[in-house]
Amino acid sequence: METVAADDAIAQFARQDALAQLLGIELLEAGPGFARAAMHVGPHHLNSHGILHGGAIFSLADFCFAVACNSHGQAAFALHVDINFLATAPVGARLLAEATEEHLGNRTGLYHMRVMTGEGTLIAACHGMAYRRREHLA
Known about the structure:
The chain is an alpha+beta fold and 138 residues long. The protein has helices spanning 8-15, 18-23, 54-70; strands at residues 26-31, 34-40, 74-85, 94-104, 108-117, 122-136. The protein has a 6-stranded antiparallel β-sheet with strand order 1-2-4-5-6-3. Strand 1 and strand 2 form a beta hairpin. It starts with 7 loop residues before the first helix and ends with a strand.
């Protein structure tokens, strides 16, 4: 997993995500309330129908969500995430995901995530609510 333009704490946080590493998710960019990541679709990302697994799409979006909501250095965890699957992508496609902060409060944060192909086809759209704990990232 490679990190570009992310501070040390959030880069370290992202590197510790074992599932992201297993799925081949790469953090491209992170900043306060924002994250961008990529994943190349491989045969191991397919479901029993031979199409891109919804769990792989969700995991990419959720990784961005986690990085964005923890980017302020305060430990944050998902309270709720909803996802709308809109399209699929073939093996070999590069998926890009972005998470952007819509609202940041003392105890919660609201985020919007999008997963797209490299050509710009929208694959999924999500919203996530995070609970912000008082602890800081290590």
